[in-house]
Design goal:
By secondary structure, the protein is mainly alpha-helical. The N and C termini lie far apart (about 100 Å).
Amino acid sequence: MPAEPPVPDLGRYGHRDEPDDERRRLVANLLAAALLAALTAAGLWIASTMADLRKDQDCVLSGRRNCAGLPAAPPGTPPSP
C-alpha cells in the first residue's frame, strides 16, 4: 500500500502556459515604489511639523514670551546694529 503524500498535488501552482506580462509587473512595481516614497515623505513632513509644534508649545508653557522663531539672515549678511 503506497503511503499518502504529506501535501496534496502542487501541480496547480506550477508555471502556466501563458507568458509573464513583464511590462504590467514593471508598471505595478513602479507605482508601488512611488506610493511608498510619497508615504515616506508625508510621514517625515508630519513628524517634522509635530516636532516644531512641540517645541513652540514647550516655549509657551514655560512662560516665555515671543516664542516665534526669528528668520535667519542669509549667509554673508552683516549683523544688524
